[in-house]
Request: fold
Amino acid sequence: LFWSIALGFNYSNEVLSISIVLFFVIGLYPKGIRRRLQIAYKDKFTVVAFLYFIAILVSGLWSEHTGNWSSSVSNAAAFAVMPFSMLMLPFFKGVFVKRMVIGIAVIMISGLLWSFSQYFSDLSYYGFWERHIPTAPALKMDHIRYTIGLAFAMSTYLFILKRKNEYQISTLEQVILYAGVALTALYINLQIGKIGMIAFYGISIMLLLYLLFTSQNKILKLIILIGTPILLYLSTTTTRFQHAWDTFQRELAVYSSENLDGIENTNSFAPRLISFDVALQLLSDHPVGGVGVGDVKSEMVDAYDIDYASIDHDLRLVPHSQYLYSF
Reply:
């Protein structure tokens, strides 16, 4: 347990990459490979992920910048490898699923406790709204992906807790999972990361609606109906949220202005909206085949020169997300 926490805390990305490659190689072992390929073919997520990789690969046929295209292909290779690798895991064994989720919860909680120890030990520094709460060392301060991962991990904890009898979850294990849920909610609402907040509240709202319409417990329904608005209101009263909301309104005003006055004093929201405008124009100009994954950057640069020439080059955002690129 100690070494699992230590490895996950400091080298999570490296351990994950090595594990996925090993599982993929095991999946290609000749004995029984036909059966494993049939399982992969019947799994919708695996098929969709593989088709996504193929789409990236094929887009090179009309991409002039082959260097950018090959980089996108290498990034998207995980979509061809990871789902097939995950199918090699014994998810059909309840004891494996339980140990895996508890292990994830323990590692996540250790990272969260470290983050809170840094945050509360220097509130005068981290209390300032523009400074992000630190993340575990292995994550290199990537709070965006961290909060998204936390939100999805939380949904896994809740999934196991709902089936605690099926997976024979002990009292101690329930405490660990509930602690993971509570610490995740606290961290995300203190961090105020846009994408993390969307993931957290999206999952939470879907869960609450599910419980509201399926639960036979009238007291639980009453708690949801009364408690949810109260919690949402309280989350908006924090200083960090108020500053984030003020920034959102200010940048929206800049984006809506005729000459984009003040764009140089914005963070990322207004420039992102402008990049969406540029991208939508590309979509309308190339509705069927697009411009090729390798040419997205150069095409957006040209579009900025036409539609937003007044914006300084340093403020012109081009999406670095491979999902947006492929879209």
